[in-house]
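Recall that a protein's primary structure is simply its ordered list of amino acids. Everything else, from secondary elements to tertiary packing, is in principle encoded there. The following example makes that idea concrete.
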Amino acid sequence: MRTAPDWDVDALIDDPATRVIVCCGSGGVGKTTTSAALAIRAAERGRRTVVLTIDPAKRLAQALGLQALTNEPGLVADADGDLHAMMLDMRRTFDEMVETHAEPGRAETIIANPFYQTISSSFSGTQEYMAMEKLGQLAATGEWDLIVVDTPPSRSALDFLDAPQRMSTFLDGRMIRLLSAPARAGGRGLMKIVGAGFSLFAKAVSTILGGQLLADASAFVQAFDTMFGGFRERAEATYALLRSPGTAFVVVAAPEPDALREAAYFVERLTAESMPLAGLVLNRTHPARADLSAARARDVADGLRGAPLATAVLRLHADRVDLAEREERLLARFAHAHPGVAVARVPVVAAEISDLDGLREVGARLAAAATPPPAPTSLRTAQ
């Protein structure tokens, strides 16, 4: 049976060359908990750390014992180290970008435009692009030793890898070119060239969308036109940051078939994109002592008379051994398909993770994953 190499998590977070950690994985596998645990462990080991969640479920604030997170880094006051936390506000990030990069006098016009208000909150790909924008902003300040990014709990967690290309495709699209044609024409002679084509386009689109929406869209694109190049440049710079040696992607999974299939997808996608994969965190594992097999424990339990407590303990041990062996088989299957991917096994913990002490315990178990973990003393159903 192929085994996955162990992963030294502390070596990753202690390395000053590690500047960005991106946690990704399917829903319900403890990804947000892992992100927060990595961040607090890094901060308490001396690194100035900020954790950014793109997940709108607000679980990061709950895990840190905070009432709410904002679009700006906020100090986690009860942490022993220098730890800040924030949650992406897609619309606010877009507004800030416009205010920073628009030509003088144009920012208010752009932000007040109804078409802008629509795309800044609901256009497909906007969240992923704004996540790239916010990560780029954090990295550009040079203020942080480490940025930990908690991505959305689905395959769309990696959609931000496509954000630069998708945004460029949108900005280079025929509709955008036509909407911006009057502004780009510049003079009367050129306006005559583009005017006929634009008039036909406007007539067709206004029939479908309505004249006011077309007017709003055209006004937005014309006001926004000078920012298009900056969009591409910043997105491409952040994409380069994600592929740099200072970035580490962490895939989070649970020892279940569906979760490990999703983990395999993430690993394959990151490999195809040449993104630096640090390893797999396998959450909520159930290690068991191997000195008494499940079959032997059940045989002994069947032979006992008048000892119900001992019988129950033996049967519980047998079930735990069966579960541990099942998890090892699943991990072996993953390791066979993805040899060389290091794994940190994190045993289940005894209580709900809802405060900093719980996060510290998860962080300690992450760090201990480089050596065989002890059998846990209690069970839990969620982490």
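Residues 183-210, 371-383 have pLDDT under 50 and may be disordered. The CA atoms of residues 176 and 251 lie 37 Å apart.
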